[in-house]
Amino acid sequence: MNRQQLSAVRRVLKREKKNCKNDDLFQRPGLHPSMGRHLATDGHIAILLDSPLKNVPVGSCKDSLAGMIYKECNRGEHFPLDDAEVNPALWARLQPDGKDLGPIELEASTGDGYVIRGNFSPTCLLDAWEAVGGDACFYLGFGGMGRQRLTLLVAPPESSQSKGVGVLIARVLEERS
Asked: What CA–CA distance (Å, rounded) separates 127 from 149?
């Protein structure tokens, strides 16, 4: 894992710690053990890693979230974004000083000619892109149990997945209006 990827994962962990309530006995912030992997999440983005990070506290177990991500990956209900939709320079401009100026609308064409659209946080998009790496592949589709909310899956290209890349996949939730 390179420095940029590590920074993105640490930003997600920092947001989770900031949002976590001290009196919550069931949720411990940190890198969460998840189905034999490790998960960094702040509630809007989840980054699935193949190994733990040094000097990062262990959080509470999140097997159900990892299981949901695996199901989404295998369902075949996510569709690739056009290269024009992936614009990290724009995402960086829309979150000066760590504050989002507004959501980014992304769209993808389904196999049967429909277009699906979702609004996503520029901060989460940038973190997902940086965590996975600059040549990441983006897929927009239906996630969750009821498949009513769109999710964005960000994965390394297949060629780098066999090289033991630290990040397996990142998942970004659509913003609610």
From this structure: 20
